[in-house]
Amino acid sequence: MREKDLFTGNKYYNDPSLDVNLEASNYMDADLSKQTFKGMYMPGSNFAGAKFFQTEMKGARMFGSNFYKAELADVKLPTANLEGCNFFSADLTGAYLERAGLNGSNFTGAILKNASLQGSELREANLIRADLENVNLEDADLWGANLSRAYLSGANLKAANLECAFLENTI
Hints:
By secondary structure, the protein is mostly loops. It has one helix at 3-6, and strands at 20-21, 40-41. The longest helix is centred in the N-terminal third of the chain and has 4 residues, at 3-6.
């Protein structure tokens, strides 16, 4: 499926000088791999099972979206607003989410191996049973986050805010 066919049919939709509004869209099981998008406005959208391998979406605004079992390996979402998103069982291996807004997001059972969340906001995020092996959480704000039964082997937590965080049975 070509880029222009996937969205609006407008060949200019992916022009870096344009912002795109795709609020509450349904991209269930879509393949959005190896794309570059700028200023995407997609709050409340459904990306369950979608593939975002090596996709770049700097500054995307996708708050409240559903990424259930989505494949986001090596995705680049720096400074993105992903607050309140559902990443249940999603694969974010090697994802670049530095300075992203992830407050209140659900990462239960998600894979974040080798991901970088440096400086990200994860206040009250749910990371129960998340695989955080070698994840970079330097300067991340995890106030009140639930990391129960999370796997943190090799994780960088330098200067991370873990105040009021739940760390029960964390490895």
